[in-house]
Amino acid sequence: MEARAVQKYIRNSPMKVRRVINLVRDRSVPEAINILSFMPQKPTEVVEKTIRSAVFNLMDKHDERFDESELVIKEIRADEGPTFKRFKAAARGRAKPIRKRTTHLTVVVEVREREPVA
């Protein structure tokens, strides 16, 4: 069983978001949320919110019960969204470009069944 959540148009650059998601990739959901709660970066709030959304989507999708510790982040990626282009006044009547980048974040969680101990 797996479910996904997508958060679009996050007002952070993909590079900054990738720095955060690389620490939680291929971890269990409780461990990932615990790691994110201690990180000072701004994108951690959005990443945590999207992971929780994927978990709740899984709960809505399947009526079966599962243990929260069995949930694993199967895939998490930060793709580049549209860039807002602005200009800032510079010396001698010139204009310097400012690029305000956005990110599309995709999270896929799945339930890993524990192998029976023989």
Beta-strand portion reads 25-35%
Structural class: alpha+beta
Query: Number of helix segments?
Result: 3
SSE order, one letter for each helix or strand: EHHHEEEE
The unreliable regions are none
Mean pLDDT: 93
Give the tally of β-strands.
5
Order of strands, main sheet, comes to 1-5-2
Query: Helical amount among residues, as a percent range?
Result: 25-40%
Q: How far apart, in Å, are the first and last alpha carbons?
A: 24 Å
User: Main sheet, how many strands, which sense, barrel?
Assistant: 3 strands, antiparallel
* Silhouette: elongated
Radius of gyration, in angstroms, nearest whole number: 18 Å
Task: Explain the overall architecture.
- The protein has 118 residues and is of the alpha+beta class.
- 30% of the residues lie in helices and 34% in strands.
- The chain is built from three helices and five strands; from the N terminus they run E-H-H-H-E-E-E-E.
- The chain has helices at 14-21, 29-37, 44-61, and strands at residues 2-10, 71-80, 84-89, 95-100, 103-111.
- The strands form two sheets. The chain has a three-stranded antiparallel sheet with strand order 1-5-2.
- Strand 3 (84-89) and strand 4 form a beta hairpin.
- Helix 2 (29-37) packs antiparallel against helix 3 (44-61).
- The radius of gyration is 18 Å and the shape is elongated.
